Amino acid sequence: MSTPLYAALSRPGPASFFNFTFLPKYATYFVNGVLNTLLLSIFSVLLAVIPALLLALMRLSKNRLIRGISGAYIAVFRSTPMLVQLSIIYFGLFNAIKIPNIVIFGFLRLNQFIPFVVALSLNSSAYVAEIFRAGILAVDSGQMEAARSLGLSQWQGMRLIVLPQAIKNILPALANEVVTMVKESSICSSYGCMELMWAAKTTAGATMISLGPYVLIAAIYFAINYPASKAIEAVERRMRRGDKQ
Amino acid sequence: MIELRDVSKVYQIGEERVRALDHASLHVRPHEFVSVIGPSGSGKSTLMNIIGCLDTADAGEYLLDGTPIEAYTENELARVRNIKIGFVFQSFNLISKLSAEENVELPLIYQGVRTSERRERVRQALAKVGLEHRSKHLPTELSGGQQQRVAIARALVTRPSLILADEPTGNLDSHTGGEIMDMFAELHEQGNTIVLITHDNDIARRAKRVVHILDGRLTEVTL
Ligand SMILES: Nc1ncnc2c1ncn2[C@@H]1O[C@H](COP(=O)(O)OP(=O)(O)OP(=O)(O)O)[C@@H](O)[C@H]1O
Ligand SMILES: [Mg+2]
């Protein structure tokens, strides 16, 4: 075992796994990083809900053109790297639209937040649309048939009968999408969004401690996502059990 | 009552075109009990969807109570279904999160019937199918036969001019199916107009008039 990793682990120094000497000075970076990461992920998915519902309904439309438009959007966003999407939106869209440099709540710099939320939620819309579509299709088609036969239009049947039943399939998947976004949002560090990954990169650059900051954020990401996924699983199990009676 | 003239419906699945209805003509008069019999895929459900205003024909004419259906918008069609037609489906199609009485109440809510009158009519409809004592149960807490009886109560509660049933006994054992058929016979005797769709000869014969359907084409059967 004479690999560099082993060396790094066994010998104290700047590259050590557990060198957290940067913490006292840089702790605020990480605290703000957690807040930014969480807000970024939650807002992106919440903002994605309405466009995703629209995309899903379009995807289920009888009209081929409408189906095609939605299908194309979903295909583009699912088949290109998120970093590429982010770059195009950041340099394209937000070159034209300037967000004022305002800080709210003491840590949220709007011009370093809004472009990323928009980029992430445009991407998330494509995935959440598929979540909605699957959730709607999982509802027995007899429910829509019944709704329409009782005098509802297609849209009323969707809104009043099908969607309320689909919600229970959709919510856990939506929560999982937030978990995915917590991880994926790390790419926003590339353009200076002050989330967790940025905190680690900046600290590593300033202190020359190249490993410790990343080990720390790995632990933080894990501490957020693992319990969250477990909780979602538990809720899902409970809902399934409730279904059977 | 129902006047179908040369009605056609074509489904396009990829490259393939399926003629689900091929110049179908049918005239049903008030108080008639007609059954439509045909094998699987012959176009029975397509016919029911068109008669029931759930779908529209590609060609031909459909007059319901003398009014051509093509003249209606989607919202008007929904209203026609609500007021004029009572549906009974093979798989019952009760709204799964609503109790038996709430299911029966639903079409009356959409009609804007007052609460007190609604209660009374729901009670009567459930009594008619012998299920007053199950009114608070959810569909999952009822047997197949009971679910279908709730569905019949739901179809009757609006006093529709036409009852449309698509294989109403298809998911039931023969004894329970027989009970449901007795119920249809009774409804007919009370003056209801019924169109019943089936692939079962014995069931079809319960009606006074039988129409055959094959590859989307209708032919009258003389008994
Ligand atoms: N929504 C649809 N899209 C494409 N094809 C369809 C659709 N609905 C029906 N068809 C086709 O039209 C033909 C007639 O179908 P229909 O459902 O009316 O038959 P059916 O007599 O009710 O059959 P079953 O006894 O199996 O219920 C079939 O070949 C079917 O595959
Ligand atoms: Mg059928």
What's the arrangement of secondary structure elements?
The complex is a heterodimer of chains A (245) and B (223).
Chain A: H1 4-10, H2 23-59, H3 64-79, H4 82-96, E1 103-104, E2 108-109, H5 114-137, H6 141-149, H7 154-184, H8 196-207, H9 212-244
Antiparallel strand pairs in A: 1-2
Helix pairs in contact in A: 2-3, 2-5, 2-7, 2-8, 3-5, 4-5, 5-7, 6-7, 7-9, 8-9
Chain B: E1 2-13, E2 16-28, E3 33-37, H1 44-51, E4 59-64, E5 67-68, H2 74-84, E6 85-88, H3 100-111, H4 115-128, H5 144-156, E7 162-166, H6 174-189, E8 194-198, H7 201-204, E9 209-214, E10 217-221
Parallel strand pairs in B: 3-8, 3-9, 6-7, 7-8
Antiparallel strand pairs in B: 1-2, 1-4, 4-5, 9-10
Which features would summarize this protein structure in a list?
heterodimer, A: 245 residues, mainly alpha, MetI-like fold, two-stranded antiparallel sheet, 9 helices, B: 223 residues, alpha/beta, Rossmann fold, six-stranded mixed β-sheet, four-stranded antiparallel β-sheet, 10 strands, 28% strand, globular, binds adenosine-5'-triphosphate, binds magnesium ion
